[in-house]
Amino acid sequence: MSYASEVLEKVIRRDPAQPEFHQAAQEVLESLEPILDRYPKYRRNSILERLVEPERIITFRVPWSDDRGDVQVNRGYRIQFNSAIGPYKGGLRFHPTVNLSILKFLAFEQIFKNSLTTLPMGGGKGGSDFDPKGKSDGEVMRFCQSFMTELCKYIGPDTDVPAGDIGVGGREIGYLFGQYKRIRNEFTGVLTGKGIGWGGSKIRPEATGYGAVYFAQNMLEGRGDSLDGKICTISGSGNVAQYTAEKLLELGAKVISFSDSNGTIYDPDGIDTEKLEYVMELKNIHRGRIKEYAEKYGAEYREGERPWSIKCDCAFPSATQNEISAADAQQLCDQGCYLVAEGANMPTEPEGAHIFLSQKVLFGPGKAANAGGVAVSGLEMSQNSQRLSWSREEVDQYLKKIMKAIYTSAAGAAEEFGQPGNLILGANIAGFRKIADAMLAQGLV
Ligand code: NDP
Ligand code: 2IT
Fold first, then answer.
1. Is residue 311 annotated as part of the catalytic site, yes or no?
2. Facing residues of 92 across strands?
3. How many Å lie between the centroid of ligand 2 and the Cα of residue 133?
């Protein structure tokens, strides 16, 4: 049995009820085999055993009072997974499905993603099973204040710097930041994704979506192709989906779908900038359902479906984990889709990813393709440390440079380890190497 399989077996035995974490760990560990074989130092020093065990997990009670005055109790978490190359860094997710398995998978992915960005950030993730849907602003604020009252003991600008993820956007970051500042009496860069007027970076809201599109551009350039005129499907209709669409439109592509947890809209005429503006207002201000788009513009609404049965050139899964099954992947390939850039974290099931690779689809795995968000978070940290704020153009140039560097290092590692074009393997190896060598240099950590 290989070293990677041995460690994976131990992971599963130790925490049998964490399927999402097993899935993420399996994908990474399997693709590390070539580098583990080449350099025995990693096995000799039990690097994998250390890598799969979080440095620290914090769980806590979050009591808050709803608009009726009734007391509600949710569970809060922060996983501080790996600090080998910088302070823990990663988002907070507020969604009823949040549990240890989901957050460990996300924090584990974040370690390698952050390493790929070229910036000094460790890996972490946190959140709560709180469901912001249908809650008033006041309820969301009271929840955020209670959550931060406990979380503030464990984070700080040089320790652990959370940001947004599903269910956590500008509104929530504002409430969380306000509470941190009140309790600690410090105005610091303890969170990223802050508002522009109070320490936020330009382009941070756009960065994940823009970055996913820049990553797709890099993959296409390798074949002398571009996004101009391409038919693109997008899943989700939140932060990542919206700014993926915005950048695709700017580059001349045609966007024909959005979705949410209730269904998909299909607009064969294309979602133009005016329709996109409507979606942004619908989702970010009215917090409505994507179905309303179909009613307004006479587009097709497919209740309970995802966009993968729609014929396209390029697909941008930007909603959540495991939203592309093997059957979806096969259907995408059969209908001529030849590029998939993962804006979401782990949206493709392992068998689906296998299909994309074997059918030579240009496949950008999440930890590479969606790293633009955390990369600009890293730039927000730099600006906060300098007490300066950079222009839109400066941040965008950095973002483009970083996405290119990620593509180059993932493609380079895939080539070096004998699987050219396999960016899953390439991203995992390139991300791992820096982390593992830092851990070796730091002794028994
Ligand atoms: P948002 O909360 O802004 O939007 C999430 C979108 O995905 C919504 O349209 C939501 O629909 C849909 N969605 C969420 N859960 C499910 C589900 N279980 N089934 C179907 N649809 C679902 O989140 P983001 O756009 O920020 O995040 C989207 C993805 O991108 C996540 O995987 C996240 O981890 C990843 N990501 C985010 C980054 C960021 O900077 N924000 C950075 C890198 C990755 P509904 O409204 O019905 O819930
Ligand atoms: O998954 C992710 O990379 C994020 N949710 C963004 C994390 C961050 O710290 O900006």
1. no
2. 126
3. 21
